[in-house]
């Protein structure tokens, strides 16, 4: 069962000792990398949500960013596991889903498949790459969506598109 927690509670979860092939990453480190990437891209965070499962070993988060297009805020979500349940991942878009039942979706999704060799620098690269890609994708989506306003539809065209 997932528990909504504060950021400080998520950061306080102790990180277990790694092995030669497994390098768990503290939840706070993932938070820091995502926030650094968001700030680097000139964006701000309007709202944050954090959840923990398995006594804090599994972490799920979503941020609503201050960039809004056509009434929808951009969002970024991320997850982390310190007990080998799943890889660290980042998703972003105009609609995301980061759920403790392992649903993880957005316009952009990126995972780090293995934790061997994963360090702060690599985590920062993953977060920054994700932000750059999603900004490009959402920028393209915004242009396409805005361009739709230039099309005129007859009543019959509208009926075909929406009902038929």
Average of pLDDT: 86
Main sheet characteristics: 6 strands, antiparallel
Q: pLDDT below 50 for ≥5 consecutive residues: which ranges? A: none
Assign the structural class, choosing from mainly alpha, mainly beta, alpha/beta, alpha+beta, or little secondary structure. Answer: alpha+beta
Total number of β-strand segments?
Answer: 8
Query: What strand order characterises the main sheet?
Result: 1-2-3-4-5-8
Distinct helical segment count: 4
What is the ordering of alpha helices and beta strands? EHHEEEEEEEHH
Principal-axis shape equals elongated
Tell me the Rg in angstroms.
18 Å
Beta percentage is: 25-35%
Helical amount: 25-40%
Distance between the termini: 43 Å
Structure notes:
By secondary structure, the chain is of the alpha+beta class. Helices cover 34% and strands 29% of the residues. It contains four helices and eight strands, in the order βααβββββββαα. It has helices at residues 7-11, 27-40, 120-147, 155-162, and strands spanning 3-5, 45-53, 58-69, 72-81, 89-93, 97-98, 104-105, 108-111. Strands 1-2-3-4-5-8 form a six-stranded antiparallel beta sheet. Strands 6-7 form a two-stranded antiparallel sheet. Helix 2 packs across helix 3 (120-147). The longest helix is centred in the last third of the chain and has 28 residues, at 120-147. The radius of gyration is 18 Å and the shape is elongated. The termini are far apart. The mean pLDDT is 86.
């Amino acid at each position: 069962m997932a528990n909504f927690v504060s950021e400080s509670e998520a950061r306080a979860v102790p990180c277990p000792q790694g092995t030669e092939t497994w390098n768990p990453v503290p939840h706070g480190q993932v938070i820091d990398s995502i926030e650094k990437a968001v700030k680097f891209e000139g964006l701000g965070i309007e709202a944050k949500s954090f959840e923990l499962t398995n006594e804090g070993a599994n972490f799920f988060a979503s941020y609503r960013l201050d960039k809004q297009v056509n009434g929808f805020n951009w969002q970024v979500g991320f997850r982390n596991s310190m007990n080998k349940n799943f890889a660290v991942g980042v998703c972003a878009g105009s609609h995301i889903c980061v759920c403790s039942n392992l649903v993880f979706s957005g316009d952009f999704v990126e995972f780090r498949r293995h934790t061997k060799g994963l360090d702060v620098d690599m985590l920062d690269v993953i977060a920054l790459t994700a932000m750059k890609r999603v900004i490009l994708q959402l920028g393209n989506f915004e242009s396409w969506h805005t361009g739709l306003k230039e099309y005129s539809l007859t009543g019959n065209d509208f009926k075909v598109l929406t009902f038929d």
